[in-house]
Amino acid sequence: MLTIALPKGRIAEETLDKFEKAFGEKFIFEKRKLILEKSGFRFLNVRNQDVPTYVMHGAADLGVVGLDVLEEKEYDLIKLLDLQLGRCKVAFGLRAGEELDFSKSKITVATKHEKIAKRYFEEKAMAVEIIKLYGSIELAPLVNLSDCIVDIVETGETMKQNGLEVGPTIMESSAHLIANKNSYYAKKDKILELRERIKAVL
Ligand code: PRP
After folding, report:
1. Average pLDDT score over the chain
2. Residues 96 and 164 reside in one and the same domain
């Protein structure tokens, strides 16, 4: 049995679709159920940011999670495969017409992605104040809570609708299949076979 943590929503559905193509079976969560067990797989329906936690603790052997979440959590996990789903980037959002002012003594950045943002400024040896938010990040520069934001951009529509422009990209992201290290060594044949089958239907 392989236990696989999936991030609630569209990515879970698209991943299960790949499993259907790879194994010739339908995998559908019953309404409100958080576990789906079928044909040697046990899928868990968890929150996006919680996927690495389940895999790290070995409660799931495998997981599907965005590269941005992995970078933010800095967990010691094995990256098995880029599923090429949920493509997006982590980028700056700036008030329309403004640029990142690197001459400022300190820039304030509102974001959910604290570590990713911090690393960007560390590499440039620049002072930054990170303001941690949990959502509606685009609002922060509009009410002068911060100079700019660092957030997920898919189409750019959310920033545009809120008077922001997409600035420099910090990283590209997409959903990746990850593995717990112990699981990987204990169930290597099974996991590598799964990886090959999924890879073949991407
Ligand atoms: C992300 C992000 C933006 C939006 C960007 O939120 O925080 O609000 O998507 O997409 P766009 O460029 O296509 O407009 P998400 O939907 O992931 O939900 P979240 O608030 O839980 O992060």
Report:
1. 96
2. yes
Ligand 1 atom closest to the CA of 159, numbered from 1: 14
Mean pLDDT, residues 55-69 taken together:
97
152 Cα to the center of ligand 1, angstroms: 6
Q: Which of 72, 158, 160 to mutate to test the pocket of ligand 1 (most atoms within 8 A of CB)?
A: 158
Same domain, 117 and 191: no
More confident residue, 56 or 125: 56
**Residue 150 sits in which domain range?**
88-173
Helix axes 188-200, 10-23, angle to 10 degrees: 100
Are 122 and 103 contained in the same domain?
yes
Give residues (CB < 6 A) around ligand 1.
135, 137, 151-158
Residues in the chain: 202
What's the predicted TM-score (pTM) here? 0.91
Calculate how far, in angstroms, residue 50's C-alpha sits from the geometric centre of ligand 1: 17
In 3D, which of 198, 6, 176 has the Cα closest to residue 80? 176
The reply to whether 117 and 146 lie within a common domain is: yes
pLDDT tier for residue 117 given thresholds of 50, 70 and 90: very high
CATH code (residue 50): 3.40.190.10
- Cross-strand pairs, 128: 107
